[in-house]
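Incident log, structure service

09:12 report received: a user says their structure output differs between two submissions of the same chain.
09:20 pulled the input from the user's history:
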Amino acid sequence: MNIIIIRHLLPALCIAVLAHTATAAEPAASSPAQPPYTLDNCVNTFDPAKTEKTGAGYQYWYADGTLAEGKTVKLSVVGPHLATHASHRHPEDEFFFILAGTAEVFLDGQWRTVGPNTCFYCPSGHEHGIRNAGDTELKYLVIKKEVPPAATAPAAAK
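09:34 re-ran on a clean worker, output below:
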């Protein structure tokens, strides 16, 4: 029963945690494009009609970056023995939280097999990946804050 409650509350909890990771240097005021926060846009219940197909399964955006200043929470569902994409690196750090299935996670040349209720942190710039190592669907959340394109441009281009 407690695991079911945690799974339903986890996306909202993740958004709250990410909201508190902002540094003091970040402006507190909302930009004109920032939506006002209401229960209508702060509560997102899974809707199968809004899933997006991927080559390995589907994904669902609980928070797509437009709601909370670039903070995102995405559900990924991956078919048996598949991966959404190859290992990679990017400027954002991110968390993966395994909800169901068996995953193989990759960080800087090492693999580890993990199961439900496991959190996998990927630091900024490190090569990482995740794939389904099992015979059933793998379900996990991807939680991160998008880095604005200007922040990732080479120093000479700034």
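09:41 both user submissions now match this output. Likely a transient worker issue. Closing.
09:42 reviewer note: The longest helix spans residues 2-19. The chain has three helices and nine strands.
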